[in-house]
Fold this protein.
Amino acid sequence: METPHSWTANKLFVTDDDEKLVSGIDNPSISLTTAGTSLYRAGHRFKFNRESKTFDVADPDSVFASPWWATCDDFNRVTWAAACAPHEQAESARAAFAVHPGWGGDCSMFASIVTTVDLTVWYGLGKSVIAADLFSGQMSIAFASQEILQVYIPGFSKNGMQWSDRRQVISMGDTWGNGIGHQGNLPHDITNAARP
């Protein structure tokens, strides 16, 4: 498939048979996010080490290398859907984004990027995940939200440092922000409009 955005930094990574995309989003739509767009995600401060059977401090860089993100508006709807206790916010993020507990992460690290280049993205409702529970091995399902959009950036795992600036996520009363303004409502940037 040829990307409709021939000028984007990640145009060579955009395929409709991308394994991560196909496994993570139901009926994905292709779109554009422009330079200067704020995106958010929940990552892991601690991850279960299957060899030592302990929870270890996760690599903080890994949260920023993920290709999976959310808009500011959706991220705030998820994290403030629960009471303001950090554990409840982490569990809300886990539930909305279908982060299966069997993967061993705690979803307690919130991260934000600001894109520095135009990027082609896929977005849509996430797929539910079936996986083995961490300790019992019993299969269970993590249902994805039917209201929250997932944003997938092809090629971001290897190139995110060149395509974005990392931002600290801070509590701003009843929302989270990254200090450069709110970009809510499914953003103007994620549209299928052709570039002039």
Observations:
- The two ends are 22 Å apart (CA to CA).
